[in-house]
Hints:
InterPro entries: YceD (IPR003772). By secondary structure, the chain is an alpha+beta fold. The chain contains 3 helices and 7 strands; from the N terminus they run ββαβββββαα.
Amino acid sequence: xxxxxxxxxxxxxxxxxQLNARKPVPFDLxxxxxxxxxxxxxxxxxxxxxxxxxxxxxPLGRQxxxxxxxxxxxxxxxxxxTLDPVTTRIDETVQRRYxxxxxxxxxxxxxxxxxxxxxxxxxxxxxxxxxIEALALAIPAFPRIDGATLPGEGxxxxxxxxxxxxxxxxxxxxxxxxxxxxxxxxRDQNKD
Length: 192
């Protein structure tokens, strides 16, 4: 992928200080064709035919907030094998929780949190940025058209190309000598 989802083309920031702590804020982000083309370029797609991020930003306790949304998109990428266009439909449920007090990591090392939906609450929450991130994570890493395989995929051979495979009784048996080695070690131990 090229581009950077860290600088999304789709932006819909909401100031946390202006949110009503008792009322959810609905959103429905449906970028037009030009913005979809820009997002497709940013994410290294051939095209982004459809894109909708619909949900709400709602209070979670006294200080925290949550985005609960559905992501729907139709992406077109190059096949990882043939480079032909591959169309993929993406339908994802997206959850993000913005916490005023993030849980402290346990132990001496900083690790990835068990709950990857949690983020520190800042001054702004941007559903558009969440939409781009969720789309980037949902895009197939190695798209393939049906039936596309790499040359030699699924077979493994140490024989030179064109050589006939060895009959079963002549195939090397790499672990066959281990039994003899074990017996020799046992005999040597018994002598001591």
